[in-house]
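In response to reviewer comment 3 from the previous cycle, which asked for concrete evidence that the modeling workflow produces usable outputs, we include below a single protein chain processed end to end. The sequence was submitted unchanged, and the resulting structure tokens are shown without manual editing.
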Amino acid sequence: MLPHQLQSALADLDALGLRRRRRLLDGAQGARVWVDGRAFLSFSSNDYLGLAGHPAIAEAASRAAGEVGVGAGAAHLLTGHHRLHHELEQALAAFVGMPAALLFSTGYMANLGVIQSLIDRHGEVFEDRLNHASLVDAALLSRAKLIRFPHLDLATLERQLAASTAKVKLIATDTVFSMDGDLAPVAGLLALADKYDAWLYLDDAHGFGVLGKEGRGALGNLPLATRHPRLIYLATLGKAAGVSGAFVAGSAELIEWLVNKARAYIYTTAQPPLLAAAVSASLELIAHETWRRERLGELITRLKAGVAGLPWGLMASDTPIQPLLVGDQHAALALAEGLRQRGILIPAIRPPTVPQGAARLRISLSAAHAPDDVDALLSALHALADTHD
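The workflow returned the following structure tokens.
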């Protein structure tokens, strides 16, 4: 696309209500933020446990920076694999009950690295239709045949697996779907992976720290006996953990293979060791400060009770992701703008991120929110509903 064509295409996005623009954050992430030069009550971040600005995590990063510097200076397979990285990988594997773990710079890079290293054009990847874009891109770039099944539809998935003659099969799914907030049937997926000799790859970006006992994520409710070599687990560290990066956990053989074959791991500079120190501090808070998950549960209940009578309904979700379904993208933008004018920041999610006619406000709750914050949001929504026709 040439420059003059880009200008026209951007104008088309404006007309359709689909153009995205960045907001400028100043200061720390939290329930209250300073964005675009003014203060807001924010329901816009993935900081589910309120850890992004935690002083203990900041202090761990600062202390590590003083001891080991800032940049890693090299890729992991050169001299960039620091003791702090290594210790964190061991701690993360133990935390989720898997034999080994490997750090990646981002969840997107992890998904690209894992799927492309395990499967090629002779294989098949089976994905839930609402999977995150990174899982879809990873399958396409692997050159494997991508087969998508209707959201949460295990019966269709089983028929697809039964018909497959591929040498290598991989089922990939989000555990918490990022725009809907609902949960994948992990136990059922694992049973199908067993039955049809397939890998099962769980992207727990929005579940780690929030789901399961002590915030151990989607694996926290699975018996240890089910965590066999065909199971691959990914979690990001920039959401509930409040820092940055991601890790993949699985068998020792899988992790060794990824070290040798995952291009997104091999051909990039390692993350700064200070971030590993920060995540290690975060891991302690996730495990021991159970009140954070308890507060999330209370806030979710409060929000659900308070939306009664609104012209827009919440989608079915028991996670901190609470989507308020609006429908039309222009209406979603108008509702988000009405809230912004009242000092409340919530993103309008529009196609192609969600299907046509399913635009929504993605309300993200955090343990940093107080009950009064939810009440303020509800009051604003009811006021806007009174002007809705």
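The mean pLDDT is 95. We consider this sufficient to address the reviewer's concern, and the full set will be provided in the supplementary archive.
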